[in-house]
Predict the structure.
Amino acid sequence: MGKSIEDHGVPKPTLRRMPAYLRLLSQLQRLGDQAVSCTRIAEELKQDPTQVRKDLAFTGITGKPRVGYDLDELIAKIEHFLGWDNLSDAFLAGAGNLGRALLGYSGFTAHGLNIVAAFDTDPQKVGSQVYNREVLPLEKLPDLARRMHVAIGIITVPAAAAQNVADLMVAGGIYAIWNFAPAQLNVPENVIVEHEHLSATLAVLSRKLAQNGLKNISVPVG
Amino acid sequence: MGKSIEDHGVPKPTLRRMPAYLRLLSQLQRLGDQAVSCTRIAEELKQDPTQVRKDLAFTGITGKPRVGYDLDELIAKIEHFLGWDNLSDAFLAGAGNLGRALLGYSGFTAHGLNIVAAFDTDPQKVGSQVYNREVLPLEKLPDLARRMHVAIGIITVPAAAAQNVADLMVAGGIYAIWNFAPAQLNVPENVIVEHEHLSATLAVLSRKLAQNGLKNISVPVG
DNA sequence: TAGATTGTTAATCGATTAACAATC
DNA sequence: TAGATTGTTAATCGATTAACAATC
């Protein structure tokens, strides 16, 4: 409901495929390739070549018939398209195992994400350092977010605490939330929320398993 | 390409919405409600009522006009539909922070998932216990998987190691893989793979941010 | 009964795939 | 040149949303 006026109608599936392109392209770049065709990309990623071509067209790239796309240029265009060519600061709430995993992942800076601090309510955790980031008391989040102009909030707290954390983030002027808690979040319209709902993926996996399970087991191995 | 013969055409988006229904329904159950209407569900989850009705119809439930669906029955039907009413054993490879987060999450048993052991190559980790699960050497995975008839493999290793781990899982007869590594996996056709690609979600978030960012910042707060 | 809700068919919307002319 | 590949338009497919009769 109400797509942004600024969004030039990029399909969400297209956006979700972009990182896979980027990964493959970086590999090819490391191998010393200069150019790449949609045909090649499609083969490697087991996708439809036309789909790849349409996806890439959204970045504004222009290719050469019989050659394909310039690799360096394509990578730059995709990174710019996603806004991964400049960093946004982020606060992470919930310094448990999942939070630590995200804090410890070094790949995010290449994805435009710079987690600058973590927050928790646990006095045992507050004051400690996790992968060179300070763990601060949760109640300080709104004030600090506002003062540091932090754009992104990452929620890795238990489901029961998620809405409260989201409220604090919104209060601090954060307007993009990446939510890992299995909970619905109610936020103002202008705040972007993307959910990482593990249970959604698990539902697909479970259902396929329940459907295919018997078939697979009944096939003799030797 | 080649949808399973056994899959009675359930749309993937429908499957992905099921866990959210289940969460809401359990909440209502705890509040003591006996029945629930699609209208109600749609309102709570901010969805279209017709869509909810269609989704629920896949579970085989029948409702009563003016009343809705019996809450207990609906929960049972969804759980059965997803195969969450009986447990599947799973092996987890990669006992880092993310692996630990999954091992420590107690909600999976309610989602049909029983992680019985973890595997790692790090001698420091091997032999230890993580949330009551033994951490075993990775090379033992195939043999153990086969002997224990483990159906599901969870990959939480770095991207560079993911394909090798997938190969070991397939060698052990595992036929459903839940992949958290930012890597493509090549597996035989009959093996189910579902990816938890954080970068895909991040791409959507980043793009929206890049598009809406200026607009949001320019709106005065007071 | 009146009216809220179900179940289902039809219309719309959006994404994928196919077809094909243009080009290097 | 011949032919692989791009760019784009048209056709298909699948999911969402609208419309509406049936029902309790």
In short: The first strand of chain B starts at residue 35 and ends at 36. Chain B is about 45% helix and 15% strand.
